[in-house]
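Re: the 171-residue chain
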Amino acid sequence: PHDRDPCRRTQPPEGHGRIEPLPPDRTPAIASVLGEAFRDYPVMRWVLSDSADYDTGLRRLVGFFTASRVHRDEPMLGARRGGTLTGVALLSRPERKSPPGLAALREATWSELGRDARARHETFGAAAGRLAIDVPPVPPNLPPLRDTARVPRLTRLPPVPRHARSPSRAA
């Protein structure tokens, strides 16, 4: 019964590869998978609504989000089926400072996408930020979820410092 409950599963479903860290040289493949995943996402459609070529704008914006993780040395995870990358997760560490090269890349991206697209993206970020929930960080050495009795209760973790509670910054 445990293998049918996705909350208790310790292995990916049959036919899906393991989740693995992705190196920075996989950025084009990562951006491609994310672009496909977000192609019909209403927020992207709204942010890029005045783009003359939506697909080009989407590739540029998703490429920037991916590159920002590389610049900040943040984890990028992927799942493969066979040799094909089929799923991606980009992880952010809000406490990390943006490196100098990222600011230039950000400005170049928004220069290409336009002032209105940037304003819509920032409007969405501000609205989403008001919905942020304070969640304590999960320790990196948390045991696998094979036996939920071994997982520490989140209420036992120390409170999150106020500066670390801010919603994830717009990439």
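Helices lie at 27-38, 42-47, 54-71, 100-113, 115-129.
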